[in-house]
Amino acid sequence: MNNLDYGIIGNCRSAALVSKEASIDWCCLPKFDSASVFAKLLDDDIGGSFGFIVDESYTTNQFYLENTAILITRFSNGIDVFEVIDFMPRYHKSNGGYHSPPEFIRYIKYISGKPVLKVAYNPKLEYAKGVTSTYVKGDFIVSLNNEQSYDTLFLYTDLEKNAVLEGESISLTSDHFFLVGYNEKLFVPDLKYASLEFERTKVYWLNWMERTPTYKKYNEQISRSAMTLKLLSYDKTGAVLAAATTSLPETIGEVRNWDYRFCWIRDASMVIKVMSQLGHKNIARRYLDFIISLMPDKDEKLQIMYGISGEKILTEESLDHLSGYKGSSPVRVGNAAYMQKQNDIYGILMDVIHQLLAKFSNDIENGEELWTMTKGIVWVVSKHWQEPDKGIWEFREGDQHFTFSKVLCWTAIDKALKVAKLLGKTSKIARWQLLEEAIRKDIMDNAWNDKVQAFTQAYNSEDLDASVLLMESYGFIDAKHPKFVSTVKAIERDLCHEGLLYRYKTKDDFGLPSSSFTICTFWFINSLYKIGEEQKAAEQFEKLLSYSNHLGLFSEDIDFKTKRLLGNFPQAYSHLALIETAINLSNVTPEEKVKDTLG
């Protein structure tokens, strides 16, 4: 199957995607959202990559070193065997900070026989605009682009540099290394240095995973997803990216191609909620600091998304010189959605604030700022909850009264009340309770449709929408409430296709989607579990897990027909929902399944 068969390596500063054959086809340096230095993913011909050429007798096997983000690709023809060990260095420094330079290391481990390979090193700086010149210079190989804007890249290796650059055959009899970095090194690295960086990085990830709880079932999937979410966090600010890529299409050959290397408040808040459930407090606390830093004025409205360094203007442009993934253009950088109004983000943010105060109340340093934010959020919601918006799916035309947005406005007030009680601030409770009740009544009166026997996508609509499944998760309605059970059944009838869910079937700005938004299927499986259909939920979950790539990674979408992965990759949204669903279902034992079947 033609799939997104890539692994991700990273160090919370940037990331790279490594193909099954150990070709680095996507990497941006020095940061996640910088211009690419390798972008074959978005243009086979001119994008640039860093791989290895072997004869057809070799097969490859790719896997992560257990409980780490270190990726190993093993090349073997039965006799001649070597491994490419890929990682971005990350570990604690003695001053309490992190060593996470803008570079990656490829450690070539000799295993047996007499393996022969050629190196295919072809960086294309600045999204492959202009000409990148690469040549040997003393201790390193340097790549230079000074046409569009000045940029450089450095390659260090203990192999003969001209042989590397010219793609000559190289026989392996021992270990070797490559280090590709954005900066020229002050001291020339050697094999011992590369080996030490590997060991330190391995220890960092093993220690990080040690803090993650273990579960009866799906432990491997939960662990890999947790590490993937960690890899999508930007250490410098605390921002969490939606995905590591731009413009991987929702449908091959169509134009739903967006840049996801930004921090959506909704996606990131959901990630933080899950990560704090897993006990990773630092990532949660740093994200809160990021949000607080974005809100200098009490009346300043929250954008739906920001740059990972807090940028508020994310101008969208097309890179027309790139042909796009499998020819799917345009390739976009920036994202015009930053200007949209989505009323749900306040509820999601308030939910995270409540969760962190409830879990780590003795540990939260900025309680006064959080109380100020809470009051500000309630004020904004009270002024704007009755207005239409673009909704969770970011329709680019026409505002509506979306049910999900209204439910999250209710959530904002519900969680604000809980925070007020936690902090002993009682003076506003009576007034806030009246607002909470008014929003609840409005939703119950207008979002339910008797004809379809479900809560619908928007007020006065018959269209269904997978996002309303979250009404239960946010505590708006009980899982066993007849109207929620009926909604789950209606969504299954209308939006489920061979076990995969449409977000909606409303014709949007680009026509009817032909791929399933992965997180929606996880939401549906969770809902089945909650309404008591545990066996069905477990079966659907196993089926969905089988659609991941060879490393257990998910993108944003899955094609209904071919089941191939589509959309930006790896997708934080998909992996946070996988964790939530897996934790719920890890408690379903075979005995419980039998009991469920019998009645």
UniProtKB/TrEMBL annotation:
Residues 8-133 form the Trehalase-like N-terminal domain. One of its GO terms (molecular function) is glucan 1,4-alpha-glucosidase activity. Gene3D superfamilies: 1.50.10.10. The keyword Hydrolase applies. Pfam families: Glyco_hydro_15, TREH_N. The keyword Repeat does not apply. Its EC number is 3.2.1.3. One of its GO terms (biological process) is carbohydrate metabolic process. Residues 217-582 form the GH15-like domain. Keywords: Glycosidase, Hydrolase. This is Glucoamylase. It comes from Winogradskyella psychrotolerans RS-3.
